[in-house]
Each structure stands twice: as C-alpha cells, then as structure tokens.
Amino acid sequence: MRPLGGVERVASPLRGMVQRFAFVLLIGAALTLLVLSKTGNLGIERMRSAIFEVATPVLEVLSQPAVAVNQAVDEIRELIFLRDENMRLREENERLRQWHTVAQNLEQENAVFRSQVSVRNEPQSYFVSARVIGDAGGPFIRTALINAGLKDGLVNGLAAVTSRGLAGRVIETGRHASRILLLTDLNSRVPVVIEGSRYRAVLEGDNSDTMHLNFLAAAAKLSPGDKVVTSGHGGVFPPGLPVGVVSSAKGGALRVQPFVDYDRLEFVRIIRYAFPQPDEVRKGIKP
Amino acid sequence: MTDVPLRIYLGRGLRATIPGITLLLCIFIASVPMGLPYLSDVTPFLSLMAVYYWSIYRPDLIPVVVVFLAGLLQDVLIGGPVGLLALVLVLVHGVGVSQRGVFLGKTFQVEWWGFGLVTVGAILFAWAVASIYFTTLIDSRAFVVQALLTVAIYPLVTRLFSLAARGLRAV
C-alpha cells in the first residue's frame, strides 16, 4: 500500500462522502427500477431490449466453446457405448417401422373421415431451429436464450419444442436472439389435457423440476404415467404437443414430469403456427 | 505531476480495467449454458465473488456505478426483475468497502468466512425481494444449492482473481 500523500489526505473524507452519496442514490435507483419493472413500465422494457440487443451477440460467441466441450463429451460417450447404442437403435427401428405402417394407415383413414365430415384442416405450421446460447443462471427464474429472433420471424407467444416435447414459449424477442420461458418457471401456465381421459387442466410451473396440475375436474382420476399434452385452448400453443407424464397423483399434489430434459437443452425448434381467426371461422360456417 | 512515459501510463489505464472486466466475464460466463447434469438451473453467483473480492482488495478500481450497471446487465441476461441484482450487488459492494479493514491482512479463512456470511445474506435478500416481486413464496431449494455452490468454489475463482490482481501491483 502506498502511504497517503498530502492531497489524498484532504481528498479522502470528500471522496468518502461522494461514494456514500452515490451508494444511496444507486440503491434508490435500483428500487425505483424494480417498482417500474413490476408495473410494466414502457421505458424499462425499452432499456431491457436495448441491453438485450447488445449483450446477446457476446453471449452467442462465448457459448461456442461450451458447445464444443459438450460435443466432445457426447462423442466420447457415444464411442464408449457404441455397441449398446447400436443394439438399442436396431430394436427401436424395428418397433418404429411397425408404427410407421400403422401411422400411414391411420393417416389415410383419417383423411377419408375428415373429407366425409368436412372438418376444416388444421392450419399449416413450420419450424425455426435455434441453438440455446444462454440459460437464466439464477434460481428465481427459468428461462433460456436462443439465437433466433425477429429476423427469423419469431414473435412472442410461439411454442418452443424439442424432439421430446414442449419446452416453453417465446416471451421476449430481439433482432437476433429471443428468450424462452420454460414450463418449469413460476410464471408458466399451459392449458393441457390428459391423454386418454381428455380431462382439461392448467399446468403451472413453480421453479422446481416438476410442474403442478391445477384446475383439474374433481371427478378426474389420474394415475402416475398418464400422458399430458397441450389442449390448444387459449390460442397460444397448437393442440397435441407432448408435455410430460403424471409423476405423482397423491392427494392434492398432482405433479407432472416434463418430457424435455432441461439439463441438456441445446437446440429447440420454434413452431410458427397460425391460429384460425374469427372471421375465417365465420367464412367457413357460411353456406 | 511526475513525468510518466505514455507507454506506462496507457498500461496502467488498461490494467485498471481488470476488475471491471473480470466482473463482466463473470456475468457472461454464468449465463452460458454448461450442459452439466443437475446444475442447469443453478449456477454459482460468480458476479457476487467478483464484487466482494475487488471491493476488499481494490475498491478504487471498482466504482459503485460500475457494479450497479453490471447488475443491470445481469438482470437483463437472466430475464428477471430489472434492478434486483443491481440492488444486491450494490449492497454487497457497500459491505465489502466498509468492512474491508476486517479482512485485509488476515488469513484466507477469515476472508472465506466473511464471503460465506455475505453470500447467505445476499441470496436470502434476493429470495425475499423476488418473492415479494412475484407475490409468491419461491421454491427455496435452488437458492440453498446456489449459496452452497457459490461458497464452495470461492477459493478456486479468487485464485484466478489474485492472478489478475498481480498485474495490478503497479497501478
């Protein structure tokens, strides 16, 4: 440590005062921001998206080495379990081939039935693939950042899926990056149906690893292993996306285990899905 | 004013940004998905370490305004309430700067113990503010895991900080 010079000795108390003033001022500023953020202030949203635009390209670059390491680990693991994996895939292939035939038959049958009862066709949907470049890194929120944004046609509300099922929905969009609210987040609410029994419910996240089923009809009987899919109500998610399985159905605690493995979320696909609009529906009804 | 050659003057200027840069790096690295099993939703509170460490050893190089802005950046990256981490980090900076006399020149164990107290306080505070913000009691397990993880890797991370600090001796 340097000994204090003459100037510093005089300047020190003054400097201390300035620092204390700055400290109090910034605490006040942080509290004000919190209140404004809670009330959904437009200025805060603008500031948020301005910082988001600048910060996400940096994150995209920094996430590259992590991707490389993940890939290397995966490759080594694959090499070790090559024989087992091959065997498993052969069995799965056999099973899927049977399903393929079943699916083709059902598709044809379905098309015939649809034309007979003149059901309106489901709107076409298409996918945008994106890499996960950031996760929340905080215990009070469950979100992920992806490297697709407005330029790829993303808007808020679209569903994000992996090959296993629904992962979440887009809640914030920048030009090149967006944020996904995961199903497990505190603020996540998804209208679902129980496959088979067709009971409706709302799936709520609570920041834990599983989700809670709410607003389920009292008569509904669930058992662990029941599959939960999106219902399409509320016009946010397309119907029929796999979400998870009921993991415990004891008393009031109805927990659902998500299909998506959030520990290994590397790529997601965003579904761009056009919901039928009321005027189109009306047009469809007219003779 | 003593005559300082421009080269050294610039070198000092650059090195004076080391604390700020390590803080920024901590924030970005914490947001990069690591793909580690069981730890995807809890990452160590790296920025807390940077703020605590530098506010004890070089408070002159880590102004409170920088800490505030860094907190805002992390709030936006996480997507949580804007101002929450800015508030937490500014408070930790305040504690570090005012209590640095307690830790300077003491053993590392004392510094680590102090960090443990600060971490528990900061994370408890963050949990309380977030719970009020979302008007619900947030599942606290993830906070406990984060606190333990943060305190556990403090010695490792601060070894890197002290390597960086070696470059600061001349500043």
Number of domains of chain B: 1
CATH class group of the largest domain in chain A: Mainly Beta
How many β-strand runs of chain A?
12
Overall mean confidence score, pLDDT of chain A: 83
Task: Using the alpha-carbon principal axes, give the shape of chain A.
Answer: globular
The top-level CATH class of chain B is Mainly Alpha
List the uncertain runs of chain B. none
Biggest sheet overview of chain B: none
**Distance, first to last CA of chain A:** 89 Å
Here the CATH topology of chain B equals Arp2/3 complex 21 kDa subunit ARPC3
Radius of gyration of chain B (CA) equals 17 Å
Fraction of residues in H or I helices of chain A: 40-55%
Major sheet attributes of chain A: 6 strands, antiparallel, barrel
Bin the strand percentage of chain B: under 5%
**Global structural class of chain A:** alpha+beta
- Counting H and I runs of at least 4 residues, what is the number of helices of chain A? 4
Give the chain pair forming the largest contact, with residue counts. Answer: A-B, 57 and 54 residues
Whole-Å distance between the termini of chain B? Answer: 16 Å
- Count the beta strands of chain B: 0
Describe this structure in words.
The complex is a heterodimer of chains A (287) and B (171). By secondary structure, chain A is an alpha+beta fold. Chain A has 3 domains: 17-80, no CATH class; 84-119; 125-280, Rod shape-determining protein MreC, domain 1 (Thrombin, subunit H, Beta Barrel), CATH 2.40.10. Helix content of chain A is 40%, strand content 25%. Chain A is built from 4 helices and 12 strands; from the N terminus they run αααββββββββββββα. Chain A has a 6-stranded antiparallel β-barrel with strand order 1-2-5-4-3-12. In chain A, strands 6-7-8-11-10-9 form a 6-stranded antiparallel β-barrel. Chain A is globular, with a radius of gyration of 25 Å. Mean pLDDT of chain A is 83; it is low at 1-10. Chain B is mostly helical and 171 residues long. Chain B has one domain (6-166): Arp2/3 complex 21 kDa subunit ARPC3 (Orthogonal Bundle), CATH 1.10.1760. Chain B contains 7 helices and no strands. Chain B has helices spanning 6-15, 18-31, 46-57, 64-78, 84-103, 108-133, 141-166. In chain B, α2 (18-31) packs parallel to α4 and α3 runs parallel beside α5 (84-103). The relative contact order of chain B is 0.15. The mean pLDDT of chain B is 87. Classes of the chains: A alpha+beta (287), B mainly alpha (171). At the A-B interface, α1, α2, β1 and β2 of A face α2, α4, α5, α6 and α7 of B.
